[in-house]
Amino acid sequence: MLQDKEANAAELERTFIAIKPDGVQRGLIAEIISRFERKGFKLVGIKLVVPNKEFAQKHYDDLKERPFFNGLCDFLSSGPVVAMVWEGEGVIKYGRKLIGATDPQKSEPGTIRGDLAVVVGRNIIHGSDGPETAKDEISLWFEPSELVSYSSNAEKWIYGEN
Ligand code: GDP
Ligand code: MG
């Protein structure tokens, strides 16, 4: 059935989300995960990692000319990061909405950064900004075998069956 195919394709949209060292140290792991979970997105990969500086530089490669790049990479590699892959219809774009603007001073209340962070250098969470970066970041942080495909009983209530 075409509808099923469309639904499956939509469910397979995936994004890379990371709780940065400040979010971990501040005890915000569960708070952040719950916002994605309650929305109806599905967690398909998760691990706690301390990236080294070289890895952080790879992750933020597109920002290498920016003046804050070195400090940013030092910070990302300063402690545990919760690396995750979330799946769901529209998860890349909507994930960014849940996260809020890069500068928490400009993030709306109700967003993760708006509610839980104050300055741009400590904005607690990362999320892929588009389909290409999502693909690249997922493959940088995860082996394919670390991602789990499964169906959840909630899906028929989240997406409907017809
Ligand atoms: P994001 O996609 O919303 O995370 O924003 P960017 O990709 O533009 O930047 C990556 C990260 O670099 C941000 O989340 C911030 O932690 C940091 N960053 C961005 N702009 C600035 C800035 O002007 N100053 C500092 N100190 N950090 C910044
Ligand atoms: Mg970005």
Automatic annotation (TrEMBL):
Key words, A-Z: ATP-binding, Kinase, Magnesium, Metal-binding, Nucleotide metabolism, Nucleotide-binding, Transferase
A molecular-function term among this protein's GO annotations: metal ion binding
Active-site residues from the entry: H126
Enzymatic class: transferase
Binding site for ATP: K20, F68, R96, T102, R113, N123
Residues of the full protein shown: 76 to 237 of 237
Subunit structure: Homohexamer.
Reaction(s) catalysed by this chain's protein: a ribonucleoside 5'-diphosphate + ATP = a ribonucleoside 5'-triphosphate + ADP; a 2'-deoxyribonucleoside 5'-diphosphate + ATP = a 2'-deoxyribonucleoside 5'-triphosphate + ADP
Keyword Magnesium: yes
Residue ranges of domain Nucleoside diphosphate kinase-like in the record: 12-149
Subcellular location, principal: plastid
Listed name of the protein: Nucleoside diphosphate kinase
Function: Major role in the synthesis of nucleoside triphosphates other than ATP. The ATP gamma phosphate is transferred to the NDP beta phosphate via a ping-pong mechanism, using a phosphorylated active-site intermediate. Shows the highest specificity towards GDP.
Compartments (UniProt record): Plastid, Chloroplast thylakoid lumen
Organism: Dioscorea zingiberensis
EC number: 2.7.4.6
Keyword Lipid metabolism: no
